[in-house]
Amino acid sequence: MQEDECRRLLEALLRDSGVPWEQSGVWTRFRFREGVMVWELACRCRRGEVLIYSRYPMAAREWAAALEACGEANGALTRGAMFLQGETPVFRIRADLGDPYSARERLAEALEYSAAVMARYWGAFQNACRG
Q1: Which CATH architecture has domain 3-130?
Q2: pTM confidence score
């Protein structure tokens, strides 16, 4: 899949799910919500893949505690990686869209996995960060 095809697929999935988004250069930005937790996502569509970055709405209060929370998450995750971008905890995952027949399913799975990770580690990062 070409970059523009990946972007159309992402936008169709968001539209079908009722998620409002905005396009800003190469980035497609939107928010996810689970209960009271709300976080931002930025997706970059490239040839055959979508890179998904989920950002917590908090900044590291204690750098060492935030890095430890990243390490704990990364030790348990089977996909993607948690890291600090400046003071902000971010989870990054890649959706491989090489097979056009399963591309929508793979993209949805990556977004769902990202949401599960963000919800699972919310408390750990909330303790290490300030909102």
Answers
A1: 2-Layer Sandwich (3.30)
A2: 0.94
